[in-house]
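In the design runs reported in the main text, the only information available to the sequence generator was the tokenized backbone. The following block is the verbatim input for one such run; it is reproduced so that readers can re-run the procedure and compare outputs position by position.
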């Protein structure tokens, strides 16, 4: 009975803790974690380009400028990541004739590394199932909020009451009951597909990046041509699989309960 209480308490704790993190704040924290890696990838990419000498001259301030561009992407002060090369040329006091396809690729390397996806923190399928149940609703919310925030979904299918709901609520149905039925059905399919793909990632038959691309096919009305479409779906994957002290506590408690009772009842799952 005590362990049942601990599991319920832990689940409530992770939900309440996660709830205070808005979409922009979560994406911001995730990209900060990857910032140093992204900066290094950018410098490696530009090392043999002519523009490198100008970057080197401003090396003392260029790291901070890349961090500023990271923040501008997230807050939409820079509307599209493709504008990054133009912004850097302005910062270096260079005209657009100094731009090149190779430099554009280096800019893409930077922001793709900012929102890079990694292997899951867990290995066993039992942990994966528990994690998916605990986090999938919030992960869906983060993804949907991100897509909306960056204008990557169709604008003619919303009304003001739908913007605070997640994922499948953006589809139009003739009645609220039909909308709810379809949302539940789609969420079940999406959750099962997520678990299937995670199994592939854990087994080594699929990469995390491949999983993100596959998940994009299950998100209706997404603008595939914009990099942030992929990054928003990557945020869904990352929220599901990222290490978290509270999550460790939950998994340890569940493991202890499972060992003692040989069962994890559905009442413990949201």
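Verbatim output:
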């Amino acid at each position: 009975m005590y362990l049942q209480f601990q599991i319920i308490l832990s689940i409530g704790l992770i939900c309440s803790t996660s709830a205070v993190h808005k979409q922009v704040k979560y994406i911001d924290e995730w990209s900060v974690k990857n910032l140093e890696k992204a900066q290094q990838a950018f410098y490696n990419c530009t090392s043999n380009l002519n523009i490198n000498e100008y970057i080197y001259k401003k090396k003392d301030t260029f790291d901070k400028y890349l961090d500023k561009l990271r923040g501008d992407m997230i807050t939409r002060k820079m509307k599209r990541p493709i504008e990054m090369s133009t912004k850097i040329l302005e910062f270096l006091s260079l005209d657009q004739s100094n731009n090149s396809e190779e430099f554009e690729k280096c800019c893409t390397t930077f922001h793709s590394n900012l929102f890079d996806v990694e292997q899951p923190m867990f290995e066993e399928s039992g942990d994966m199932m528990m994690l998916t149940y605990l986090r999938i609703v919030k992960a869906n919310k983060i993804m949907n909020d991100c897509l909306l925030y960056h204008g990557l979904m169709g604008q003619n299918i919303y009304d003001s009451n739908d913007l605070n709901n997640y994922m499948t609520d953006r589809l139009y149905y003739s009645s609220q009951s039909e909308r709810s039925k379809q949302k539940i059905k789609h969420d079940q399919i999406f959750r099962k597909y997520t678990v299937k793909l995670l199994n592939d990632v854990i087994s080594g038959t699929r990469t995390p990046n491949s999983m993100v691309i596959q998940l994009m096919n299950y998100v209706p009305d997404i603008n595939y041509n914009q990099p942030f479409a992929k990054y928003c779906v990557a945020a869904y994957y990352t929220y599901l699989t990222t290490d978290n002290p509270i999550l460790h506590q939950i998994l340890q408690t569940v493991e202890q309960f499972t060992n003692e009772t040989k069962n994890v009842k559905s009442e413990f799952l949201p």
